[in-house]
């Protein structure tokens, strides 16, 4: 009796193992799903370090803002270098790391008027790139000039804007907005995203 039960159990176990092997085999032998990027494909990424704005900080300094994008999207956490052109060569002046908007900024005080640009050295996925060059003039610290800082939408111009006559966006009527930032100067800090217009 016991011998018959053991024989039946062995036959059942063998049958179950065979059935399991048949069920699993097609899964194991199936080809792997295609990868998101086919083998040998090189990602083509266009990197821009343009959209540079030079907002004045004090009477002699500028605040150039660099923006890094790839495929139209902001690239965060990458270091870009501000370079100056001297004697026909580009050399690094300063650097910063991009934020979630792909932007970062540095403060620079040119000793002489010259051209500047932003440079991204590239990484494993993106090629190196440089921005269009932009010209920053040397500024004096003692002379005062009649500077055009803003132009309202209705054409009214604002000269020599300072903290003494400061306005914020909430104090400016809607028919005067957006406000054009002139001469790379934004003493009232209306242009939060550094695109040349404030109170958009």
Radius of gyration: 32 Å
Q: What is the mean pLDDT?
A: 73
In terms of DSSP E residues, the strand content is 25-35%
Number of strands: 15
Can you count the helices?
Answer: 1
Write the H/E string, N to C. Answer: HEEEEEEEEEEEEEEE
Structural class: alpha+beta
What does this entry show, briefly?
With 200 residues, the protein is α+β, with helices and mostly antiparallel strands. Helices cover 14% and strands 31% of the residues. Strands 6, 7, 9, 10 and 11 form a 5-stranded antiparallel β-sheet that branches. The protein has a 4-stranded antiparallel β-sheet with strand order 13-12-14-15, with no helix packed on it.
Describe the structure in your own words.
- The protein has 200 residues and is of the alpha+beta class.
- It is 14% helix and 31% strand.
- It has one helix and 15 strands; from the N terminus they run αβββββββββββββββ.
- It has one helix at 2-29, and strands spanning 47-48, 53-57, 61-67, 69-70, 73-74, 79-86, 89-97, 103-105, 114-120, 129-130, 134-136, 148-151, 157-159, 179-181, 197-198.
- The strands form four sheets. Strands 6, 7, 9, 10 and 11 form a five-stranded antiparallel β-sheet that branches.
- Strand 4 (69-70) and strand 5 form a beta hairpin.
- The longest helix has 28 residues, at 2-29.
- The radius of gyration is 32 Å and the shape is globular.
- 21% of the residues are buried.
